[in-house]
Specification:
Layout (H helix, E strand, L loop, with lengths): L1 E4 H10 L4 H19 L6 E9 L14 E9 L4 H17 L6 H14 L3 H7 L5 E7 L6 E2 L2 E2 L16 E8 L2 E8 L7 H16 L2
Parallel strand pairs: 2-4, 4-7
Antiparallel strand pairs: 1-8, 2-3, 5-6, 7-8
Helix pairs in contact: 1-2, 2-3, 2-6
């Protein structure tokens, strides 16, 4: 787990005309690049999948649930953190301006259910080449909540599902001014999970410094 002050991350993002998502993407891709360099591998871009809400209005009784699109973006991983943040913000803004395709609820989800029924879903995930990692960011309550009279002091994002050949992923959740990032990895492929989490924290600190 990595924790950061949400307002500091937002302020850093805004200085580069970006969003909290852009700052998170900059931090996790920068951390992955540094980890790969320590392994002797060198990359200039990483493809990241980012689930994005596309619902234009509040849910109604006729249309409940999430409406999501999956954005896959090739993100730059070289250069100073703040410079990369500005470039990541440009890439993500361009991706979001692309014409929206069919909603996942209407097309992708039924297709994946069919693939799962035929035993093909896991096969696809093990062989896909579209993205290297994924980041899911959820905006949580801005103020602390209570449960049965006890104050909830923190919240941790947890994602469960078939990962296929994606050996590391990230989940982020904001709660009461704290942004928590969960780093999840296949221990056989990414045994340096503690090191990766420390690098994510360092990247966020570099972005928010000053």
């Amino acid at each position: 787990m990595v924790r950061a002050d949400l307002e500091q991350v937002r302020a850093a993002a805004h200085r580069s005309a970006g969003t909290v998502n852009d700052a998170l993407l900059t931090a996790v891709t920068g951390a992955l690049r540094r980890l790969l360099e320590r392994r002797g591998e060198h990359v200039t871009t990483l493809n990241v999948l980012l689930p994005t809400a596309v619902r234009a209005t509040a849910a109604t009784t006729e249309s409940l649930g999430n409406e999501l699109a999956a954005i896959v973006a090739p993100l730059p991983v070289t250069g100073a953190p703040r410079d990369r943040l500005a470039r990541v913000a440009d890439v993500m803004a361009a991706r979001k301006r692309l014409p929206a395709g069919p909603l996942a609820r209407d097309v992708v989800a039924p297709l994946f259910r069919l693939m799962a029924g035929l035993g093909l879903h896991n096969r696809y995930l093990r062989r896909q080449r579209r993205f290297h990692t994924l980041l899911s960011n959820v905006r949580g309550p801005a103020t602390a909540l209570s449960f049965a009279g006890a104050r909830i002091t923190g919240a941790v994002p947890v994602a469960v599902g078939e990962s296929g050949n994606v050996t590391v992923s990230f989940g982020a959740l904001s709660y009461a001014g704290v942004l928590t990032v969960a780093c999840v990895a296949d221990p056989a492929r990414v045994p340096e999970l503690d090191e990766l989490a420390a690098l994510v924290g360092d990247e966020l600190a570099r972005l928010t410094a000053g």
